[in-house]
From TrEMBL:
The lineage of its organism: Eukaryota, Viridiplantae, Streptophyta, Embryophyta, Tracheophyta. This is Uncharacterized protein. It comes from the Eukaryota. It comes from Smallanthus sonchifolius.
Length: 681
C-alpha cells in the first residue's frame, strides 16, 4: 500500500497563492495571514493596494517601506487628528513628503486631512500621476484665503486627476467654480466630482452649478448640494436642471440634494404633509432631464419643497434610462396612484434594485403595494416620513418582495413604530440582512385581525384578493421567529426612551447580528431625569456575535457644565446611556458624546471614561469628540486595546487647540503609553 501524501496550502503554485491572498479584503484577516510564514508576509506586503496610515506623524522612523504596491493611500487619520499634517512632524516638510514618495511610489489615490493648503501644496507634486484625491477638513476654512486657494494646488500639480471628492471638506461654495474655470485642461478630465457637503449652509446656486457642469463636461458621476428653495435668489430651477443635461450628457450617477436633506433632520411624524412651498421644478423639465441622460444607473433627487404630480416623469425615466438600478427621492408627490389596479408612475420602474423615498405626503398603502408589484427586483428599500403607510400596507409590500428584499429602513412614519414595523417585516425576517427602525414603542392592540382588500388585474380578468392580517396568529407559514441572517441593526431613539423593550418587540433571536448602530436625538434640557437608572445596553448581551457598536449621542443637547436645579448635566446622561456597556463582548466601539451647543463642546465625561474602561474585550475605540488627558489614561486598563483616536469630525470642529482636551502633546502622550503596553495577540 502506498503511503498517503498530504498536501498543504503552501504547496500551491506561487501564482495561485498570490491571487488568493490578494483577494482578501478584510485588513485584520490579511494581517493574520501575514503571520503564517515569511513567504506569506512577503506576499501580503507585495499585493496590498489599499493602506490607511495611523500613528503619529512625528514618528518618521515607523513609516513602513514594504508596501510598494499601494495605490490607494489614506493619510487623513494620522495623529494628532485634525492638526496640520506637516506641522505635526519635527522633520522638514519637504523631507517628510519625499519619504512618503519613496515608501509609496505607485500611489494613484490619496486621502488627506487638509487643515490648510500647505500639506497638499507639498504632497501633490510627489505623485504627478495622481488620479483620485479626497480632501478632509471639519475645521472652519481660514477666512483670509482667496477663493479656491485649497483647490488650486491639486489642479496645478495633478494634471491626470479624474476624481475629486470634497464631501467631507469644510469650504465655501465660491471656492469651487473659480478653481475649475482657471484650470480647464484638468477640469475637462474629471469624471467624478463629489460636492455633497453638509457644511454648505445653502448649497450651490444656479449660476455656480452651471459653471461647474460647463467646466467638467466629461463627468460620469456628479454629487452636489444645491439650493432648491424658491424663496432665495439664485435657486436651482427648471433652466438650471436642463443645463446639466446639455453640459454633462455622460452622467451615470446624479445626486442632487438640498443641504437640509443632508443634515438628516427628522420631521415630526404628527405633522407630515406637503411643505408650505413648491419647488420651481416642473414635470416637463424632469421628463427632459431623464430623456437626456440615457446612461443613468443611479439617481438621487432629494429636495425640501414639493414636486407634485411627478408620476408621469418616472414613467419616462423607466423608458429612457434602461440601466437605472438605484433611485432615491425626497418630497416627490404623486409617484404612485394606481387606478383600478393599473400600475403607473414609479411602479413601472421594474429594473430598480434599490429604492428610497422620503416625505411623500400622498403615498398610501395601495400606492406602496403597486410599487412592490411593479418593482419586483428590489433588494433594498427605505421609507421615511410617509404618514399614510400602515402596517398592513408595509406587510403586503414585503410579502410581494419576500424573495429579493434584504435591506429595509423604516423611519419617521406615523403609523410604523418599532413593534408594528417588526410585525410588518415578519414575512422576510429569515432573509433580511440589514435593518433600521425607530424605537417608538407603539401598541399592537389595534392591529389584531385586520383585513385589507385590494384589486389587481391578471391579463384581462379582474380578480379580488383578500389578505387577512392576523398579526398575533401568523397563519401564512411565517412561524419562524429567528432573524437568522440579520447582521446589521440600526436603531433611533428619542432622548429619555429605553432600549429594554426592544427584545420583547420581536428582536430577541438574532444569532448572527454583528453590528448595532444606536442614534439618540433630543434636548435633555426639557427633561428632569430618566425614568430608569440605565438605558439598557446590557440587554444586548443576548446577541452572541455582537462585536461592533456605534453609539451616537451627538444630537443629544444638554448642559456640559452645572445644570439648573432638578436637571442632570451631560455627564449623568452619558452614564445613563453607557451603563452596562462593559457587559458586552465588543471588539470595536464608535462613540459620539452629547453636546452643549452654547459652548460648542462634545467631550467625554468622567462617568463615560470609567464605563468604557470596563470593556475588557475592546480592540478599537473611536471617540468623535474631545477628552481630557487624564480621562484617556483610564482606557489603558483595557488589556487588548490597540487603536484609540479622538476625532472632532463634526461641523464646526473646535478651533481652540490649546485646551487640555485637544492639545497635540496630550494625545501624543496617551498614544505613547498605549504603544508601550504588551498586547498578547
Amino acid at each position: 500500500m502506498s503511503a498517503s501524501i498530504s498536501t498543504a496550502i503552501n504547496d500551491l503554485p506561487d501564482v495561485i497563492l498570490f491571487n488568493i491572498i490578494a483577494a482578501i479584503s478584510d485588513v485584520r484577516s490579511r494581517n493574520a495571514a501575514s503571520l503564517v510564514s515569511k513567504k506569506w508576509l512577503c506576499v501580503d506586503r507585495s499585493t496590498r493596494t489599499f493602506l490607511t496610515l495611523r500613528g503619529n506623524a512625528r514618528d518618521l522612523f515607523m513609516l513602513p517601506s514594504c508596501f510598494r504596491s499601494v495605490t490607494h493611500l489614506d493619510l487623513s487619520l494620522l495623529s494628532p487628528w485634525g492638526h496640520p499634517l506637516l506641522s505635526s512632524t519635527a522633520a522638514d516638510p519637504a523631507l517628510f513628503a519625499q519619504l512618503l514618495r519613496q515608501s509609496f511610489p505607485q500611489v494613484q489615490s490619496l486621502v488627506i486631512y487638509s487643515r490648510n493648503p500647505t500639506a497638499i501644496q507639498v504632497l501633490a507634486p510627489q505623485w504627478p500621476t495622481l488620479r483620485q484625491i479626497k480632501l478632509v477638513r471639519w475645521h472652519q476654512r481660514l477666512p483670509q484665503l482667496p477663493p479656491g486657494a485649497d483647490i488650486f494646488p491639486i489642479l496645478e500639480n495633478c494634471g491626470e486627476i479624474n476624481s475629486l471628492d470634497l464631501s467631507s471638506f469644510y469650504c465655501w461654495t465660491d471656492d469651487i467654480p473659480p478653481a475649475l474655470k482657471s484650470h480647464p485642461k484638468v477640469a475637462i478630465k474629471l469624471t467624478f466630482l463629489n460636492l455633497l457637503n453638509p457644511s454648505f449652509p445653502e448649497g450651490f446656486k444656479a449660476q455656480e452649478l452651471e459653471d461647474i457642469t460647463k467646466a467638467c463636461p466629461n463627468l460620469k458621476k456628479l454629487l452636489i448640494a444645491c439650493m432648491f428653495d424658491p424663496r432665495y435668489i439664485g435657486f436651482v430651477g427648471d433652466e438650471t436642471l436642463a443645463s446639466i443635461v446639455v453640459n454633462c450628457p455622460k452622467l451615470s450617477l446624479l445626486h442632487l440634494a438640498d443641504p437640509t436633506a443632508l443634515q438628516n433632520a427628522r420631521s415630526d411624524p404628527e405633522s407630515q404633509d406637503f411643505t408650505p412651498d413648491d419647488a420651481s421644478i416642473t414635470v416637463a423639465t424632469l421628463i427632459e432631464v431623464f430623456s437626456g441622460l440615457p446612461l443613468l444607473e443611479e439617481l438621487t433627487f432629494d429636495v425640501c419643497s414639493n414636486i407634485r404630480n411627478s408620476g408621469p416623469a418616472f414613467e419616462v425615466l423607466n423608458s429612457k434610462c434602461p440601466k437605472l438600478k438605484c433611485l432615491k427621492l425626497g418630497n416627490f408627490h404623486g409617484i404612485s396612484i394606481p387606478v383600478e389596479s393599473k400600475l403607473d408612475g414609479l411602479a413601472l420602474c421594474h429594473r430598480l434594485e434599490s429604492l428610497s423615498i422620503r416625505n411623500v405626503a400622498d403615498l398610501t398603502d395601495m400606492g406602496l403595494i403597486a410599487i412592490a408589484r411593479g418593482c419586483s427586483n428590489l433588494s433594498k428599500f427605505e421609507i421615511q416620513g410617509c404618514k399614510n403607510i400602515t402596517v398592513r400596507g408595509m406587510r403586503t409590500f414585503v410579502c410581494l418582495l419576500s424573495r429579493t428584499l434584504t435591506q429595509v429602513k423604516i423611519s419617521c412614519c406615523k403609523n410604523l413604530g418599532a413593534r408594528s414595523s417588526l410585525k410588518a417585516l415578519e414575512p422576510i425576517q429569515n432573509r433580511i440582512q440589514k435593518l433600521h427602525i425607530d424605537c417608538l414603542w407603539d401598541s399592537l392592540e389595534q392591529l389584531d385581525n385586520l383585513e385589507y382588500d385590494f384589486d389587481y388585474e391578471l391579463g384581462n380578468k379582474r380578480k379580488k384578493q383578500k389578505i387577512d392580517f392576523d398579526l398575533n396568529d401568523l397563519s401564512n407559514g411565517f412561524e419562524e421567529k429567528t432573524w437568522e441572517k440579520l447582521e446589521h441593526l440600526s436603531l433611533w431613539f428619542s432622548v429619555g426612551e429605553l432600549l429594554t423593550p426592544l427584545l420583547s418587540s420581536g428582536l430577541e433571536d438574532c444569532p448572527n447580528l454583528e453590528e448595532i448602530c444606536i442614534k439618540v436625538e433630543g434636548d435633555c434640557r426639557h427633561l428632569s431625569k430618566p425614568a430608569e437608572r440605565e438605558f439598557g445596553l446590557r440587554c444586548l448581551g443576548l446577541y452572541p456575535k455582537l462585536s461592533k457598536m456605534k453609539l451616537d449621542c451627538g444630537e443629544v443637547i444638554g448642559y456640559a457644565h452645572t445644570a439648573p436645579s432638578g436637571q442632570m448635566d451631560l455627564s449623568l446622561w452619558e452614564r445613563f446611556y453607557m451603563f452596562g456597556i462593559g457587559d458586552l463582548s465588543l471588539d470595536e466601539v464608535d462613540y459620539w458624546p452629547p453636546q452643549d451647543r452654547d459652548v460648542n463642546q462634545r467631550s467625554l465625561s468622567l462617568p463615560a471614561a470609567g464605563l468604557l474602561q470596563e470593556c475588557l474585550m475592546l480592540r478599537k475605540l473611536f471617540i468623535h469628540g474631545t477628552a481630557h488627558e487624564h480621562f484617556l489614561m483610564f482606557l489603558l486598563r483595557i488589556p487588548n486595546l490597540r487603536d484609540v483616536q479622538l476625532r472632532e469630525d463634526y461641523y464646526p470642529a473646535p478651533e481652540n487647540d490649546m485646551s487640555t482636551e485637544m492639545r497635540a502633546d496630550s494625545c501624543s502622550r496617551f498614544e505613547d503609553a498605549l504603544n508601550r503596553r504588551h498586547i498578547h495577540d
